[in-house]
Design goal:
Length: 339
């Protein structure tokens, strides 16, 4: 290996080290050390230590919101390169020879895949390829006909109901349409999982809800009902509900489906922002190809119920596999016949 390669990997390891968001902003030249220190001091004086550091920096005029998001995106880009050069990550979810048939059709066919911990993983592939079914197996909403799904060292198919529910508490899931309750306002929608699954006092629940609404830029919208929100706002409210339980793993089923390009882009930035602050393992299904390669570390390509390819986003994007190349380009001519 050349000296340059060693230097590249050394730099990659430095880029991949998780740091507090404020330190990341300083390292990337987005704000100065003095500005960060003043923001932290302002939070301490006002007793708002849980206020997002980015929000404080914006309020002090040290950075704009778009500039903050762009800074986080560039950091994600460096992490993607680091993961491509030095692909080291523990596996948190593993499928072993998983098969699943629905209505007599085999949807998952001897599926083997691994999801890296503390990374953003995108699952892509043509419609009907088994993506949503795969996501539901991860959290035990579906059980395989054959094979095993592991979360850490826990085989989901062998767990008692009590132990399975314990594993499920490590997850939050955002369904494709958001699945907000029409009869509840935004605050009550976001608070719902805490009220149903914890014994937290109502004051603590509402505090967490307000913090999550702040994270997804829905401050002041708590009294609105789902039918009063735009499509993008409903997605953000659903993401707030997924975040409020402080999960270890977030599953997102088509978080940008049905949104215009600008709102789609804003959701991608929001996912990036959330990941940079929390480092939750994030797995999401997307048809936003090729844009999606810029927003994740790892990509799994599902085709006919099997993994066609799995690896760093830079590697998959440059794949020479004709099926993957056709899917990325959207060409009608190729191995995938749709007409």
């Amino acid at each position: 290996m050349s000296q340059t390669s060693f230097q590249d990997i050394s730099q990659a390891k430095q880029d991949a080290i998780p740091l507090p968001l404020g330190e990341r902003l300083v390292r990337n030249g987005c704000v100065s050390p003095a500005q960060l220190e003043q923001a932290l001091e302002a939070q301490s004086k006002e007793g708002h230590k849980e206020t997002l550091i980015g929000k404080t920096l914006i309020e002090l005029g040290y950075i704009t919101h778009p500039a903050l998001l762009n800074c986080l995106f560039h950091q994600l880009t460096r992490e993607r390169v680091a993961y491509h050069l030095d692909r080291q990550a523990q596996t948190i979810i593993r499928f072993e020879n998983v098969e699943k048939s629905l209505d007599g059709r085999k949807v998952l066919d001897n599926l083997n895949l691994e999801i890296p911990a503390n990374k953003i993983t995108a699952i892509i592939g043509i419609s009907g390829g088994g993506k949503s079914v795969t996501l539901k197996h991860m959290v035990g909403l579906m059980k395989p006909d054959k094979g095993e799904v592991w979360v850490g060292d826990q085989p989901l198919g062998r767990l008692s109901t009590r132990k399975l529910n314990h594993v499920r508490r490590r997850f939050s899931m955002l369904f494709q349409e958001g699945a907000l309750f029409d009869s509840l306002n935004v605050t009550d929608n976001v608070a719902f999982p805490l009220r149903e699954t914890t014994r937290l006092h109502e004051e603590e629940i509402l505090r967490r809800v307000e913090l999550c609404l702040q994270e997804v830029n829905l401050v002041g919208m708590g009294n609105k009902y789902p039918d009063e929100l735009s499509g993008g706002m409903r997605k953000r409210a659903a993401l707030a509900r997924a975040l409020v339980t402080q999960p270890e793993i977030i599953l997102l089923d088509e978080p940008t489906a049905g949104l215009d390009p600008i709102i789609e882009n804003s959701i991608h930035y929001l996912i990036c922002d959330t990941f940079m602050r929390t480092r939750y393992t994030t797995v999401f299904i997307s048809h936003a190809v090729p844009a999606i390669f810029d927003w994740c570390h790892h990509v799994v390509v599902l085709h006919r119920g099997r993994v066609l390819a799995s690896g760093p986003s830079l590697e998959i994007r440059n794949s020479s596999d004709p099926t993957i190349k056709q899917f990325i380009s959207g060409d009608l001519d190729g191995p995938i016949q749709v007409i």
